[in-house]
Fold:
Amino acid sequence: MSKVEATHKSAFQPSAKVLVSCTDMQGRDNALAVGYCCNCSYDPPMVMVGIVPSRFSYSMIKEAGCFVLNLPDSSCQRMFDYLGSVSGRDEDKLGKDWISVERAKTINAPILADCPVNIECTIVDSIRSGSHEMFVGRIESVRADAQYLDEQGRVKMDADYL
Structure:
């Protein structure tokens, strides 16, 4: 079988589908759907999330220095689709009565309460990588519905996530 040249753009498609929530310095909350997200350190525990600088949440996250990774399951499909298709520039996305929001425990940001896993992060570094800025966040707190945890209290990564 012979191989042909393929496009370089998105040669490796990220698989994580997360909702990133944040609060700006004026206290305004927002959230967006993100496809570029992964663990980047186990000790200390850190994650990396990629945000395009033109996104409304980009400057909010950069200025505030923190964010929450919210892992949605299939029951969150409507919320995921909405938060991924509407800009916070145009409306208060988290003001919808069908989106349940609570405050994070350790940082100044909202959590999306209907998502079964919420990971609170403080930014420790960032790397501009072409189209995205990759924010490295130290995990400060993880809250999860019990059925999404294994016997050791670790988040199950093979659960019913989007």
Summary: DSSP finds two helices and nine strands in the chain. Residues 56-64 form the longest helix (9 residues). The longest strand covers residues 117-129.
